[in-house]
Amino acid sequence: MPKGVKTKVDMGGVSETLLLTVYFRAKESARNDGIITDTFAQDWVGKMIYNFEKFDKDRLSVVGVAVRTEILDEIVSRFLKENPEGVIVNIGAGLCTRFQRLDNGSVTWFELDVPQALDLRKKFVSACPPRYRYIEKSVFDYTWLDEVAGVAGEKNGNVLIVAEGVLMYFEENQIKELFGLIKARFPKAEVVTDTMPKFSTKVSIKHHKSVSQTNARFKWGVGKISELYDWNLGIDMIKEYSHFNRHTKRWGLVGLLRFTPLGKRWARLIHFRFKHGKPEKNS
To answer: Cα separation of 69 and 46, whole Å?
Structure first.
């Protein structure tokens, strides 16, 4: 994009949520004591014409997005250290900047999202094959698995699937089918995604200060992890992460939920694989 030129953004539905997450990362990065530093997000937000101010009242979601970013960065960095020539698929890529910030020079990275979202992304950063590729499809257009399998097979690399801030907007049967097909194609893949409690899909949307400003709606929630085991997909949990366990002062009184079973499920990341192994202890 030429210097000084801004792009007007008009999005709806689930795709619009990519705007609130990039804005929250930019907002957190502007703090002197920020949990994360994402200069790409700051730059991209500054180049968009959009009413970001409608998200400003949601202080806790800024913290939540920052903590989620921090945890996912750690997981991806660890994967890259162990699998420097591995393959990463970023489901619902939106305006995620993780490749730009963590690229090790040898990973093959796929940004997977619908055309509308990637059209906006292209205004700020282009694909650069063969290592950095865009797949302009819905995650439920399963032909994307063929594209990734072609590369993963050639490199004989391990695969990490990252689904950040996206799967909760779809139905449970869709998520179960997705995980099953990932396992069938990549039986040793690792998957990391965020989840929310089941009840929150029914009652919290009107209380979610930022998501309620969009047309997106929560649909999938998880209670106990045993619910995923009941899907009979051979899910082997590597680690669970509770957002409330980090940067406790920034959460304020809400952070006290970390001492309750409900709080541990309220804002959570799960990292699992499709093979048997000894899981790490939760933190």
So the answer is: 20
Alpha-carbon distance of 271 to 183, in angstroms, equals 14
Residue 77 burial (10 A CB sphere; 0-12, 13-18, 19+)? middle
Tokens at 235, concatenated:
């899910």
Question: Which one is predicted more confidently, 282 or 106?
Answer: 106
Residue 189 in contact with residue 153, Cβ under 8 Å?
A: no
pLDDT tens digit sequence for 253-277? 998 888 888 777 778 999 999 965 4
Rounded Cα gap, residues 81 and 52, in angstroms: 36
The span from the CA of 206 to the CA of 162, in Å, is 27
Q: Structure pTM? A: 0.90
Torsion of CA 50, 56, 57, 59, to 10 degrees: 130
From the list 239, 243, 264, the residue with the least C-alpha distance to 75 is: 239
Strand partners, 111: 90, 134
Distance CA 223, CA 229 (A): 12
pLDDT tens track for 155-165: 656 999 999 99
Query: Which residues touch 145 (CB under 8 Å, ≥6 apart)?
Result: 181, 182, 185
Tokens describing residue 39: 């200069």
119-135: average pLDDT: 96
Greater model confidence, 72 or 217: 72
Helix, strand or coil for residue 34?
coil
At position 155, the amino acid (one-letter code) is K
For residue 85 the two structure tokens come to 């020539």
